[in-house]
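Appendix B, Record 12. Input sequence as logged:
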Amino acid sequence: MSDQQVPLIAAIEMGGTKIVCGIGTGPHDIRATHRIDTTTPEETLEATSRWLSRAKTEHGQFAAIGIGSFGPLDLNPKSEGYGLITTTPKPNWQQTDVVTFFKNRFRVPIGFDTDVNAAVLAEYLWGAGQGMDPLIYITVGTGVGGGVLVNGQLVHGAMHPEIGHLVVPPPTNSAAVQRECQCPYHKSCVEGYVCGPAIAKRWGVRADMLPMDHPAWEEIADVMGHALMNLCLTLSPKRIILGGGVMAQPQLIPLIRGRLIHHLNGYLLIPQVGRDIDSFVVSPGLGSRSGLLGSIALGRMAFDQTQNAHS
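Logged structural output:
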């Protein structure tokens, strides 16, 4: 397909603290981007809509909108609640109908999925996950989420993967100020120990203020090592990509690789958890752009499905 035939797509990456909007056709053609703070649903969606309208005026009509959102989400097109953010712990966002809002405003096809499914799709198409299937992408930031791609398809089932709420053993002999898991739903899950807000509450210091040799990092790596072990044993991925603000600490991914090998304890005699561990658990190839580029890919998929339905 020539560049002239590639449709212009509007992308919305909806995160717990910020929304990133963009318009373009792919990783080498992003015409404009814009950041919006995540406040109330009404304010946030209106601000996003206003920016998309300006982008349409400046860059031309877009063929579809791709939305990668924090969740949990209702992704079943046959469900009455399709397009909703459902039981999120984020205040005031429960039961927010994201898809209907943008469909009514712009009358174009909408691609809708989790922000982490968007990210794993982008990494598979253009980043560190090319040729790697099954592929897992985990982001550790305001929350913890995971996207899974198997046989070239994003995994949906009764719902979508919720890797952040995998149960893990409580850290032993913790030196944290508050030792408890910070998840409002669970007593001992990944997100409740290692997401940014949980780190700040448990250790009394924001993650980006902790020195590199702080004991918090060993504990975070241990929790993540347990989560990755469970994923290796259930999904048998070819690669695991770790993104998000917390994972930007340069010492953390090497620590996590070590804990994954430790927890497996020799059970899987495969190169990925031995000599090839450095290319098995990796940083995103697209950096912080995975979610936005994945949203463009979701919009493109929605556009293509509409075109195929009409052909």
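The mean pLDDT is 95.
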